[in-house]
Amino acid sequence: MSGGSTDPASIGSGENPFYHFSQKTKVIEDSAFGCRAILVNERFWNKIRSSILDLLKDAGPLVMYELGLEYGFDMGFQGKAKSKTRGNDIDFFTYYVLMSGWGRFEVSELKLKDNAPPRKATVKVHDSFFAKAAKSETGNPSCFFLSGLLAGMAEGTFSTGYNCLETKCLACGDDYCEFVLTRRPGD
């Protein structure tokens, strides 16, 4: 992540460049995406996640992935307009998710090469909100929403399709969550 105003160390404690409480409207606003925001704690997220997985059984992980994919695509598409240059897209997103409380994203190899989208990238998520909210009951990685979100963000940013597979998960006892993004064949 580059220094300057997008560097977490450069802002004072308690300040967040994306979220603020509006005295005029009396709501929390997300200035990055121009919409209202809410705070969600681990208990709330875990109840939503476990209810979806319980109600939809085997289809639950797919539904969670698809929800993340749709939202991630919108984030990627809208967010790339927020960064001044194409190379700063990743810096914008890693800072936005950090300030949103989702965790610290460490992205490798997700840069344009010869103006072509990357074929593969690895994303490590340290202190993931989504993984810490619930332990895996199966011993398998379980950040379905976050997997979809990352695939969608890459697709929205680079205008080409991506798959995302979680290979390590904090909820399974790993030190961090790790995701491998790969460009879909034909894209």
TrEMBL record:
It comes from the Archaea. Residues 120-183 form the 4-vinyl reductase 4VR domain. It holds the Pfam family V4R. This is Putative hydrocarbon binding protein (Contains V4R domain). It comes from Candidatus Nitrososphaera evergladensis SR1.
